[in-house]
Specification:
The chain is α/β, with parallel strands linked by helices and 227 residues long. The chain has 2 domains: 122 residues, Rossmann fold; 94 residues, Arc Repressor Mutant, subunit A, CATH 1.10.10. The chain has 8 helices and 11 strands. The strands form 3 sheets. It has a 5-stranded parallel beta sheet, sandwiched between helices. Strands 6-7-8-9 form a 4-stranded antiparallel beta sheet, covered by helices on one side. Strand 6 and strand 7 form a beta hairpin. Helix 2 packs parallel to helix 3 and helix 6 crosses helix 7. The chain starts with 6 loop residues before the first strand and ends with a strand. The model has no long low-confidence stretch (mean pLDDT 90). It holds the Pfam family Response_reg.
């Protein structure tokens, strides 16, 4: 999954860490801004409107906890990942309680941080991701296209939303009631059997005659199964 075009703000008073992360994230295609202290971070965030903030806890003056509270208080949808050199549970709990979305302990690898960023994007900004790969499936939410084994499937809007939902929940049993709520909407007044009709159609398009991809669990619902 790419972070291309994602706005990222790096806040740390250690120049070598900022330089290391900035270079890596720029190479991944992100739009990056930096700040070396809390006050500067809040000013930059006000204009830059970052999707994700990588925020060091221990900084002179305004610390990371205070910056986190200030950024969350704006009401903007910002994912905040806090960095700390302290492997102390109380610091992690404090950060999460004041609104931090994730926590990374120094030292960490760039790959670990990138994975954390991608997880926050999936959770808070799914529409920004463009193509996302799940096993043999590729979901392009911007184009509303879903591919299986590199072949674009011809899907109706409802089929697209249904298949996307069960693919993203691979391995999880999904009841008909839950599927209706998430795909058709809470106010849908039709019968649960509509789910069976659409599942049958998807199986045909996936050539899943033996129901190995979309399994039926009698009395429970459906489960997508792929490695």
């Amino acid at each position: 999954m790419s972070v291309k075009g994602i706005r990222l703000l790096l806040v740390d008073d250690e120049p070598h860490i900022v330089q290391f992360l900035e270079l890596g994230l720029l190479n991944e295609g992100a739009d990056v801004r930096t700040a070396s202290n809390g006050e500067e971070a809040i000013m930059v965030a006000s204009d830059f409107k970052p999707h994700v903030v990588i925020l060091d806890v221990m900084m002179p003056g305004m610390n990371g906890f205070e910056v986190c509270q200030a950024l969350k208080a704006t009401g903007d949808n910002i994912a905040i990942i806090m960095l700390t050199a302290k492997d102390e549970t109380q610091d992690r709990v404090k950060g999460l309680r004041i609104g931090a979305d994730d926590y990374v302990i120094k030292p960490f690898s760039f790959e670990e941080l990138l994975a954390r960023i991608q997880a926050r994007l999936r959770n808070q900004f799914p529409n920004l991701l463009g193509e996302v790969v799940y096993g043999p499936f590729r979901i392009d939410d911007l184009r509303k296209e879903l591919s299986y084994m590199d072949q674009v499937l011809e899907l109706s809007p409802t089929e697209y939303e249904l298949l996307k939902f069960i693919v993203m929940n691979n391995g999880i049993v999904l009841s008909k009631a839950l599927i209706l709520d998430k795909v058709w909407g809470y106010h849908f007044g039709g019968e649960e059997n509509i789910v069976e009709v659409y599942i049958r159609s998807l199986r045909e398009k996936l050539q899943d005659k033996e129901h190995r991809l979309i399994r039926t669990l009698r009395g429970s619902g459906y489960r997508m199964d792929f490695p």
